[in-house]
Amino acid sequence: MNPPISILVVDDHAIVRSSLARTLNDEQDMTVVGTAGDADEALAEAIRLKPAVILMDIDMPGLLCFSAVETIHARCPGTRVIFLSAFAHDRFIEQALAVEASGYITKDEPTQTVVDAIRNAVGGIAYFSPAVRSRIVVDSSGAHLAQRRQTRADTLTPRELEVLRYLARGMSKKEVAATMHLSVKTVEYHSASLMNKLDIHDRVELARFAIREGLAEP
Amino acid sequence: MTLWAIVSAFAYLAALAWSLVLWRRRLAWGTGILSALLLFTAGTQVYESTRDTRPFVIALDLGPREASGLAAGALTLFLVALLANVTSQGRQAEQRLARVYRALRARGRCNTALIRAKGEKQLLEEVCQIIVEEAGYRLAWVGFAECDEAKTVRPVVQAGCEEGYLDTLSITWADTERGRGPTGTAIRTGQPRAARHIHTDAMFAPWRAEALKRGYASSIALPLRADGQTFGALNVYSEEPDAFDAEEEQLLISLADDLAYGIVGLRARADRERVQKALRESEERFRELYDTMSSGVAVYRPKEDGSDFIFTGMNRAGLRIDNIREEQIVGRSVLEAFPSVREIGLFDVFQRVFRTGIPDHLPARLYDDGRVSHWVENYVYKLPSGEIVAIYDDVTARVEAEQKRRQQEMLLRNIISNIPSAVFWKNTESVYEGCNWAFARAAGLSNPDQVVGKTDYDMPWKREHADRLRRHDRRVIKEGSPLIRVEETLRHADSTEHIILGSRVPRRDAQGHVCGILGIHTDITDRKEAEETRAKLQEQLHHAQKLEAVGQLAGGMAHDFSNLLQVILSGTEKLRGHLGDEAACEAYGMIEQACTEATGLARSLLTFSHRLPIEKEPIQLGSLLQESTRLIRRMLPAAIEVVLETCDDSVTILADRTQMQQVLLNLAINARDAMPEGGTLRFALERAAAPPDALSSPAGQSPTPWARLTVSDTGSGIAPEIQKRIFEPFFTTKPRGQGSGLGLTIVREIVQQHRAQMELRSRQDHGTTFAFHWPCIDPSAIPKESQVPGEQVRGQGELILLAEDQRYVREIIASTLQSLGYGVLQAADGAQLLDLYRSHREDIRLLMIDADLPKRPGTACLKEIRLTDPLTPAVILTGSPDEQHDDAYDELTVILRKPFQMSDLGRLVCRLVNPRQLEESQT
Question: Which of the following CATH numbers is that of domain B429-523: 3.30.450.20, 3.40.50.300, 2.40.100.10, 3.30.1330.60?
Answer without folding.
Answer: 3.30.450.20
